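> example.struct
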């Protein structure tokens, strides 16, 4: 029995450059980072980030429920609402028992946990929020989306660090293929711009240190790359079996052709320098899709602008894809949105397929001389794109790759 095609019929995003999918796409194509000094980070070794602002999240969520939600939950809900609407679905009319929700995150509500710890220390237990637990546990984005949308099928919260978004989409695909659901709402969310996180990134050596305008600090694949800049946001997609989507008249944005996952089993932060284990994830995704490497027209790179990751990934890309498909790295604009990064970058890859446009890598004049890859620089590249892959390589050695195809 052949495996059913899986269609992505809805897409929602909220990021540092846009509060919906279209504005996010425009911002990424413009190639200008919004990284800036952030209030509340005064005195931190890293006091800048790419943050979601320009929107009243509580008003957008509506009702009294917002008080029990951390920012990471609110971002996920708004992205999910957009995705479901984009898919042409109405939660009031579907069979909720056949709807799954899979939303990953890397750190969950660690921001709220830290805030509540400060309250506890300064004012005592009686001053802590009655929603302290709800504000912190990582399953709440999936749970709150399910509550709002009356989705009573499987609900999960994958955590594979920076690969969480692609892991969530892979789980969603498997649930649809196995028949455990008919609709899957899947993606990831993150919001950890707070002092402890900034101190941690500074101490680990992964975070870029201030050197001039923060907007120019994240330089994926540059010879003078200086480390990651933290971001936040969410992306959520609606997945369905393609034949059922067509039957209801939906127009798929893309087909999820394949996924691959491996674990470096090498180091908590640094990727395996050979890149062979990450490469195995890329090759697994290609096999799952039934593609040859030369079928790939575009690579959305993990591209963190850290010394070790970019070197590993550039070498991997040149080995697997010697035909040099155009490469982009959205973190130059968005910063590293951690657990949400893979979902956001999957969404951007879908838009690249649909529109025949590859966004440029921000802050990159030319790739490091030793990198034999075709980085898109300066302006968006316009060319037909039929098949693409997006890489996610997370702390702990989690590697997840997704292969996407234009319908």
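> example.seq
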């Amino acid at each position: 029995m052949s495996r059913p095609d899986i269609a992505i019929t809805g897409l929602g995003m909220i990021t540092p450059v846009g509060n919906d999918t279209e504005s996010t796409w425009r911002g990424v194509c413009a190639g200008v980072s919004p990284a800036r000094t952030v209030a509340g980070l005064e005195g931190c070794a890293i006091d800048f980030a790419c943050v979601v602002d320009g929107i009243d999240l509580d008003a957008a969520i509506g009702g009294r429920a917002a008080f029990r939600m951390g920012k990471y939950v609110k971002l996920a809900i708004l992205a999910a609402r957009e995705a479901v609407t984009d898919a042409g679905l109405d939660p009031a009319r579907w069979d909720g028992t056949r709807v799954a929700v899979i939303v990953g995150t890397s750190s969950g509500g660690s921001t709220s946990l830290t805030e509540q710890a400060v309250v506890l220390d300064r004012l005592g237990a009686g001053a802590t929020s009655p929603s302290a637990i709800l504000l912190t546990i990582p399953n709440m984005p999936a749970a709150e989306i399910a509550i709002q949308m009356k989705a009573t099928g499987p609900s999960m919260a994958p955590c594979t660090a920076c690969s969480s978004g692609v892991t969530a989409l892979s789980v969603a695909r498997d649930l649809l293929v196995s028949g455990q659901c008919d609709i899957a709402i899947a993606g990831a969310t993150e919001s950890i711009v707070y002092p402890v996180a900034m101190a941690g990134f500074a101490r680990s050596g992964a975070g870029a240190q201030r050197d001039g305008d923060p907007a120019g600090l994240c330089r994926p694949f540059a010879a003078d790359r200086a480390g990651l800049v933290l971001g936040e946001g969410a992306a959520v997609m609606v997945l369905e079996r393609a034949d059922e989507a067509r039957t209801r008249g939906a127009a798929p944005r893309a087909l999820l052709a394949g996924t691959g996952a491996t674990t470096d089993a090498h180091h908590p932060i640094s990727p395996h320098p050979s890149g062979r284990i990450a490469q195995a994830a890329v090759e697994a995704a290609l096999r799952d899709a039934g593609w040859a490497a030369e079928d790939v027209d575009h690579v959305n790179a993990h591209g963190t602008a850290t010394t070790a990751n970019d070197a590993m990934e550039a070498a991997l890309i040149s080995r697997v894809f010697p035909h040099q498909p155009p490469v982009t790295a959205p973190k130059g604009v968005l910063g590293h949105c951690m657990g949400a990064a893979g979902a956001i970058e999957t969404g951007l890859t879908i838009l690249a397929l649909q529109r025949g446009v590859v966004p440029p890598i921000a802050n990159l004049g030319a790739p490091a001389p030793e990198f034999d890859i075709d980085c898109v620089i300066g302006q968006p590249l316009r060319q037909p794109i039929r098949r693409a892959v997006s890489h996610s390589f997370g702390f702990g050695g989690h590697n997840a790759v997704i292969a996407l195809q234009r319908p």
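> remarks
The longest strand covers residues 254-263.
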